[in-house]
Amino acid sequence: MYRKNVEQKGKLNPHVSVDCAIFGFDFEELKILLIERVKPTEIPNDYFFRNISLPGNLILDNEDLDTSAKRVLRELTGLDNIFMEQFYTFGDPNRVKSKYDEEWLKSIREEPTARVITVAYYSLVKLDKLNLHAASFAQNASWYPVSKIPDLAFDHNQIVYKAIQSLKHKLHTEPIGFELLPEKFTLGQLQKLYEIILNATLDKRNFRRKILSKKVLIPLMEKQVGVPHKQAQLYSFDKEKYEEMRTEMVGFDF
Amino acid sequence: MYRKNVEQKGKLNPHVSVDCAIFGFDFEELKILLIERVKPTEIPNDYFFRNISLPGNLILDNEDLDTSAKRVLRELTGLDNIFMEQFYTFGDPNRVKSKYDEEWLKSIREEPTARVITVAYYSLVKLDKLNLHAASFAQNASWYPVSKIPDLAFDHNQIVYKAIQSLKHKLHTEPIGFELLPEKFTLGQLQKLYEIILNATLDKRNFRRKILSKKVLIPLMEKQVGVPHKQAQLYSFDKEKYEEMRTEMVGFDF
DNA sequence: TCAAAAGTGTTCGGTTTACACCCATGA
DNA sequence: TCATGGGTGTAAACCGAACACTTTTGA
Lengths: 254, 254
What we know:
Two copies of one chain form a homodimer.
Chain A: H1 2-7, E1 12-25, E2 30-40, E3 48-53, E4 56-60, H2 65-77, E5 83-90, H3 99-108, E6 117-124, E7 140-145, H4 156-173, H5 187-198, H6 204-213, E8 217-223, E9 233-237, H7 239-248
Parallel strand pairs in A: 1-6
Antiparallel strand pairs in A: 1-2, 1-4, 2-3, 2-7, 5-6, 8-9
The structure holds a DNA duplex.
């Protein structure tokens, strides 16, 4: 059914796929969205096997790589306009690592033995925008803390590792943290996000000073409600202003 | 002949290529190595056309992407152990931009209309190690200043642009400048390299202080000779020490 | 009244910047 | 002797790091 769904939209290119490392932040941990497929197997005394992997798919033959990655995201999350960036391409001829991988490919691909290279993207989603029960939210997708990622199919553990590296690096140089937070957020939430992704503890006063000095946060006329402590000022990210500033100056460090 | 030469080594994968942006530095400018192929054409009154492009080739079917890029480099320059890094993958279905591109593909490819996505690498070579007259230095390859790059085949102008961006970025965060200089170099040469690649002027005293404070340059017992001014101290880059330091600390800025 | 996070300034030390003159060499 | 790049120190501005207490709220 999955295959059919895709084929309606064009001819699959059996040689190139995209895989997406989709990150979310729940104010506690950095999470990654993985899909699990269960398939009966012919191996005796082993009637099912689990195939946990990154969401991804073969590209369509008339489709740009970015478009393809966006499609994978939309099919899985129902979301458009998600922050997304290509970070690396994996092409080890031995990417298929186990008998399970082979079995799995046989069950979903027209050309299961074709060599496939995969272009990997990471993307950042605002969890509050995501409706996990949307009809479009297909398959057995679930969020895993990046600190507890299981054994994945193919070379996906390696891809996830590199995705996290790239994310960390990007967080140092561009204001992408906001992509993981709701439109309205507190400085405390932002700080926690930085601390968790960078795996460091930051000084509250210094962090606030630094972030506010960038002049890309808009303080809202609104405060947090329903928290058992002092209500924090809410801010939103001024993307337009940031884009302006970025074109003017070089090296806008975060 | 070119095709045959490659096919001896394995079966070509007609869907994926690698392209290499090879940079060199002659103490004056940053240069890039481009190849030019001239082919008779059937277009009336237009008996030849020029095809200037990045060196690149289809990958072999049993070959890793990095290996493939190394092969392209070795076939062209005769050099092994060159600094090399994958920076982006280009997969626009309309990468073939002109009638010339189509013609060219027809003359060299088994499947000239197949869609090809290309994994792009940049690499840095020490010009003094390169023997332009080596037998292995095939085809009409020549160095172009990056400030004067002609119209290239396919989407290669775009690839070059992104390669230069990546190189600049990398130069800020890692000591890759040494890869473009001879083993023994002066601080003046190093500074000039930074100034040219980053397109900025740097203060001599501050530059020296900063570079020397990293403690990865070994002052040699040797001075420049044959220059019509004071002879400069020669240095070499202590790669081992740098690797050590890098694993210990994070964020070794250049 | 308690727990939990919000909010707020100052000091210190290191880093970055700006800046100018004499030196050694080959032509 | 001239043109060319090599080599050097210091002061001021700036930036990052460290650090502690009061406030507001809901439970």
